Amino acid sequence: xxGVKPLxxxxxxxxxxxxxxxxxxxxxxxxxxxxxxLLGIDVTSKAVSxxxxxxxxxxxxxxxxRVDLVVLSGGLGPTDDxxxxxxxxxxxxxxxxxxxxxxxxxRARFVARGYPGPMPEINRRQAMVPAGARVIENARGSAxxxxxxxxxxxxxxxxxxxxxxxxxLTELVEGSLRARSEGKPVVRRVVRVAGLIESHVxxxxxxxxxxxxxxxxxxxxxxxxxxxSIELHVSAKAVPARAGEALDAAVAxxxxxxxxxxxxxxxxxxxxxxxxxxxxxxxxxxxxxxxxGGLVTSRLTDVPGSSRYLDRAVVVYANDAKTELLGVPExxxxxxxxxxxxxxxxxxxxxxxxxxxxxxxxxxxxxGPSGGSxxxxxxxxxxxxxxxxxxxxxxxxxxxxxxxxxxxxTFRFHGEREHVKLQASNAALDMVRRQLMEKGSGGRG
Length: 445
Ligand code: AMP
Ligand code: MG
Fold this sequence. Notes:
By secondary structure, the protein is an alpha/beta fold. Helix content is 38%, strand content 23%. The protein has a 6-stranded mixed beta sheet, with helices on both faces. A 5-stranded mixed beta sheet has the order 14-13-15-16-17, sandwiched between helices. Helix 1 packs parallel to helix 5, helix 2 packs across helix 3 and helix 9 packs parallel to helix 14. The site of adenosine monophosphate has 17 residues, from loops.
């Protein structure tokens, strides 16, 4: 549309008193954001309003001067607490009038659904349209959407039920909204990092952030950290091919800066990366877990096709279990304690041999809240990875062995029990990944 300012900035307003209770969450705005981003429209704010005319009018007035597009969801029903039409009409100074075509459709829908008696007159509220608004048919429900051009801005009213809103918005994104946007979508990449803390990653990348801001296609970066795993989200807004090129270059810079702590640049999770490495190298894995209670195994088996490299794993909580199922010598347990490097190594060796796998993992630790001691506080976790791998990685039970490697590390994790378990599972998977990356080079002792 020549001469009309493209839509660049949007605000979302979710309407519904239920969205202000602890039991119902506004998911529409996530979908709306995702769709608008496809067109390069940035969501600069969002709000949730109860079914309250005054409150809603106040929010609309507030955002209207700040964005090119206001998307409202919900409050288009027939009852007295559905106030979105009235609030928008009053703020924009538009009279509301009944659209007889909509009333006809509403009546037909009522009959078609086999509801008893005539349509209640109150349902005609859904046929009220602000002057000049374009009516958007709702194939899945009764409330039509409304598109209002207000000066060079757009105010869009969408029905609240997600199954009605989604197809309606998708169509607008393909059609009217696309025609009003610049056609520069926001393209994102996710870089995943293990074994570093957030502030170290941030510090290492700070020079890149500054460089990215000044580029012809600027790149925005956000860091998210959760329990031993960090995600760096980089995004660019440009025609897709150019944004893709700029992001590829940025991701390569991140990898060059951070090195092998980066385990994924293509969206894969750590368990999938480990699984793919095992498949590539034709290796199998056995896992023995104490404090993680099967979490490492559970995550590995979340990956479809994991039976190609995993055929058994054990949870060995008690000392007896470690001895009976894995052959961990009793003397070792007595001398060093269950949470110790010799025991973790014996667990890794024990499961590797018993699972007839080339890679064995042993995890033992104190998840808390009790069980800690001054020398081994809560959060102490020992992880061992033992491999018996032939160089060149031929299949399992190969006749010609050229020696494996054993790695063991003692970690101190912080946080609640479940967070200790999660961090331990991340660390274990990452140790396996690193061992596999070394490609049978012998490793450390
Ligand atoms: P309404 O259009 O306000 O009558 O909304 C109808 C129903 O859609 C509500 O009862 C909610 O279950 C659902 N709904 C409304 N708004 C949202 C939202 N922002 N996110 C998710 N569900 C919603
Ligand atoms: Mg509602």
